[in-house]
Amino acid sequence: MQTDQIDKRKKVLQTTLFMIHETGIQATSMAKISKRSGVAVGTIYHYFQSKEALITELYRSIKMELLDRIFDGFEASEDIREGFERVIRRMIDFAKNQPEAYAFVEGYAASPEIDPDVKAEVYNAYQNHIEYMYAELKQKSPEIISIHLLNVYLDGALSFLIRACIAGSIKWDDPEVDTYIEMVWRGMTGLEPTTSNN
After folding, report:
1. Are 189 and 144 in contact (CB under 8 A)?
2. Contact criterion met (CB below 8 Å) for 67 and 151
3. Could you give the angle at which helices 175-189 and 147-167 cross, rounded to 10 degrees?
4. How far is CA 193 from the centre of its chain?
5. Residue/partner pairs of 125-132 with CB below 8 Å, 24 or more apart
6. What is the pLDDT of residues 87-132, one digit of tens each?
7. Gap between the Cα atoms of 10 and 103, Å rounded
């Protein structure tokens, strides 16, 4: 794909994201996306066969980029606790700095608009990243819960923290965030607090 085509495709995805954030999926039509992005409807359909395909690709691209970003260098971490905190803080930074993208992937993760095969692809990618952490934690704490329950625990705990920050009941840089991260670590592993340089 040529550079101008990549740019147009990316512009369509970005425009769709912002429009969904403003008015929701139902009100975001291909015609409106075309008008706002400046990309012809025919060109949009060349990249995406349908609105559902466009929404699905938007979800897949955001999730995959996010996973690559937050887990970058994780397996090279000398300390699993420091690596864990870095992943959590990167996720918090993503929610803080890209609220439209965060709201989209959180709000539409269970939506029938997203192709089930893509949901499975994203979940498997996440599993591949987290398996390293799970193996390391299992060595430190043999009684640790299964990897599937670990996923549920982490997802739920982090989502509630971010919601509190978005709502303003906790500030993004509040020392309570540090405390919360430690609580999640201890609840997940049963391990005592450790000193972190992050």
Report:
1. yes
2. no
3. 160
4. 26
5. 125/63, 125/64, 125/67, 126/67, 126/151, 127/151, 129/67, 129/71, 129/74, 132/74, 132/75
6. 999 999 999 999 999 999 998 888 888 899 999 999 899 888 888 8
7. 19
